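User: Second chain of the day. Same drill as before.
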Amino acid sequence: MQHTISVTSNRKGVNNPTLASQLRRTVKTALSAEGMDLPCEINILLTDDDGIHEINREMRQVDAPTDVLSFPMFDLAPGEHPDEMDADPDTDRIPLGDMCISVERAQAQAQEYGHSFLREICYLAVHSTLHLLGYDHLDEGPMKRQMREREETIMTTLNLER
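Assistant: Same format as last time:
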C-alpha cells in the first residue's frame, strides 16, 4: 500500500531520520492492522513540550503541554474508513489527518514507565493513528478498552510490547 507519511520537525534537536523512518513504519503497520487498504496520507510533526503546548493552546484552548495531539480529517467510528471519494484529487490519497508528538514528553514518559524511548514514541504514533481512524478514550468504558486492546495488538506486531 502506498501511504504517504510525512515526518517534519519545528524544533531544533528533534529531527532524526532513523526515528522518522521508524515512525513511518509504525503508522503503516497501524493502518494495515486496521484494514485501511486505500492510499492515505498522514502528517507527523515532531516537537518539544513548548511546541506542543503552543499547538494545544491554539487548537484546543488547553493551556498545557501533552504527549500527542491528533487532528482527524474525518468523523469516523472505530472500524469505519473513508472511501475513494474522499481522496484528494491532486494526490489520489485520502488525507486522514495530522498528529503532533512531543519528543521531550516521550523521553520523559519512557523513563517514567521504564521502557525504551522507541517504544514510547511508537506507542504515541499508534495511539494517534487510531484517533485518526475514529477511536476515542474519553470514557473509562468499552471504547477505551477497545482502543487499548488495538494499541497493544499493534505494538506486539511491531515487537514493541511492554
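The radius of gyration is 15 Å.

User: Great, on to the next one.
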